[in-house]
């Protein structure tokens, strides 16, 4: 969006082919940049210089607003990662939807979740010890 805005701001009409090329170059060059503040501004400057679609100096028009846009990029990246985690868990059959909705609705508190996790970790340790050593007393835990 920023490239289209900058091209329009300096009075340059981008063809559909140029827009697609810019999109592809930015997609390839921006991988892993979401966690680095201000990196999108640098990627946009480098792409503008490499493709010569509009003057690189036009990127300075975004300098003031880039801080706010960067915040929204981080938010969008975070939400995308969260959704991806849910999709993969559901795909692999590891998503307990009843428990998920109970946690999201507040029926299960953070303390209850922590106690359940500690209990499940203790039972996993006990099972591993029983498998490795035969019978294990509870004093060993």
Task: Give a short overview.
The protein is mostly helical and 141 residues long.
For this entry, give a set of tags.
141 residues; mainly alpha; 6 helices; 0% strand; elongated
Description of the molecule:
This protein has 141 residues and is an all-alpha fold. It contains six helices and no strands. It has helices at residues 2-9, 16-29, 39-51, 66-91, 97-105, 110-133. Helix 2 crosses helix 3 (39-51). The longest helix is centred in the middle third of the chain and has 26 residues, at 66-91. The chain is elongated and about 70 Å long. The protein starts with a helix and ends in an 8-residue tail after the last helix.
Helix and strand arrangement:
Blueprint: H1 2-9, H2 16-29, H3 39-51, H4 66-91, H5 97-105, H6 110-133
Helix pairs in contact: 2-3
Biggest sheet, open or closed, and with what strands and sense? Answer: none
Structural class: mainly alpha
Return residue spans where pLDDT drops below 50 for at least 5 consecutive residues.
none
Helix content: 55-70%
Cα gyration radius (Å): 25 Å
Shape: elongated
Give the oligomeric state of the chains in this entry, treating copies of one chain as homo and distinct chains as hetero: single chain
Order of helices and strands: HHHHHH
Percent of residues in beta strands: under 5%
Determine the number of helices (DSSP H or I, runs of at least 4 residues): 6
**Average pLDDT:** 81
Measure the end-to-end span: 58 Å
Number of DSSP-assigned strands? 0
